[in-house]
Amino acid sequence: MTRRAILKGTGSALPRKRVSNAELAERVDTSDEWIVERTGIRFRHIAEPDETTGTLAAAAAKEALMAAGLEASDIGLVIVATATPDNTFPATATKVQALIGAPDCIAFDVAAVCSGFLYAVSVADSMIRTGAADHALVIGSETFSRILDWDDRTTCVLFGDGAGAVVLSAEDVEDDRGILATRLHAEGQYSDMLYVDGGPSTTGTVGHVRMQGREVFRHAVTNLAAVLGEVLGDVGLSASDIDWVVPHQANKRIIDATAKKLGLPADRVVLTVDQHANTSAASVPLALDLAVRDGRIKRGDLVVLEAMGGGFTWGAAVLRV
Predict the structure, then answer these.
(1) pLDDT of 38-72, one tens digit each?
(2) Residue 217 sits in which domain range?
(3) Number of domains in the chain
(4) Which of 105, 139, 173 is the last residue of a domain?
(5) Per residue in 86-106, pLDDT tens?
(6) Which of 17, 43, 126, 257 lies 20 to 30 Å from 278, alpha-carbon distance?
(7) CA–CA separation, 164 and 283 (whole Å)
(8) What mean pLDDT is predicted for residues 259-278?
(9) Are 70 and 102 in contact (CB under 8 A)?
C-alpha cells in the first residue's frame, strides 16, 4: 500500500462581469480579429470592486469541498497560489480559511505566477505523503485585472480573473491512482521577460505587468514540452498513454505548438483560453474543473497538468483520477 494524494473534488469561481473582445476594443486600440488571431481569446472575466482574489478563492474552495463530500472542518492544509494577493500580508490562504469556516490548520500562499498552481500541488502532495495533512485545499486564484496597464494593448487583452480549486486527500492505495509525479523548474535570469514593474521593497507600488511576448512564447513551447516528457518519464509513461492534458491557458498558439511537439491530438487537450483568457495561477484548476464537470475527465483517466509563468517558472504533474 502506498499513501498518495488523491483528487477528490474540483471547483471554480468567475467574476460576474464578462468582457468580450469587442467590448475591450471600445477602450483599447485593438480588435476582436487581432486578439483571436494571436491568442485565441474571445472573452475574459473582470472582477468588480467587491470581488477579490480571496473571495473568488473561497467560492471555488466551497465548490471543491462540496464535490469531495467534505466539510471545511476536515481540511488540514490550505494553499493559495496567486500573484495578486488581497494584501501583502497576511496570506490570502488565511482569509480563505476564515471565509470557508475551516478551523486551525496550515495555511499559506505560493507565489510562482502562472506556474503557482503546479508548485502548490507539488507542495501539497509532499505534505500529504509525509502525513502533515490528510485533506488539502489547493487553490489558484487571481485578479490580474488589478495589475494590468490598460493603455498597453499587448498585455491587457491577454488576462482575466478567476479561481479554481481542488481537494486532495490522503489514501493508501495499491493501484496507480492519485498524483504520481511532479516536476518543477525555475530560471531567474529570464525574469525581465515577464514581470510586474512594482513591489513593496522596490517601488512601494503595485506596478503593472510587462512582457516580451515573442521570447515568452519561444521559451514556453520548449520548456513545457520538455517538462511533460520529464514527468511522464518519471513514471515510465509516454505521451500516447495520456488521456487528457490540462495546460496553462495563456495562448492557444502555445498550447497547439506544445501539443504538436509531443504528438498529442488536439481532442485530448482541454482548452478554455477562449472563454477565460489567461488567469495565471487559476487557469489550470479552472480548466480542470470544467473538464471534470462536463464529463470529459472521468475516474481512471491519466491526466497531465502543465504551466509556465514569470520567473521563468514552469512545471508539470501527472495523476490518475
Answers:
(1) 999 999 999 999 999 999 999 999 999 999 999 99
(2) 178-320
(3) 2
(4) 173
(5) 999 999 999 999 999 999 999
(6) 126
(7) 7
(8) 95
(9) no
